[in-house]
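Appendix B, Record 12. Input sequence as logged:
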Amino acid sequence: MTGKVDEALSYEQARDELIEVVRRLEAGGTTLEESLALWERGEELAKVCRRWLEGARARLDAALAEEEAETDKEAETEAE
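Logged structural output:
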């Protein structure tokens, strides 16, 4: 499961699947090949989560910058 399918995952879906991957890796009992596949999947899921979090951070930063600009504009108007 890679590419466009991963892009369609919500943050919560990717996070929950990543938790399951980690649980399975920590539990052991898998072959080396299965463990490698799980590790690779975990890396893909972590990237999906990271993209969501970076997007959320960018939106927050933009909203804060907009709010700050409005506050500055109001302060300038009041000073006049």
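The chain has one domain: 4-79.
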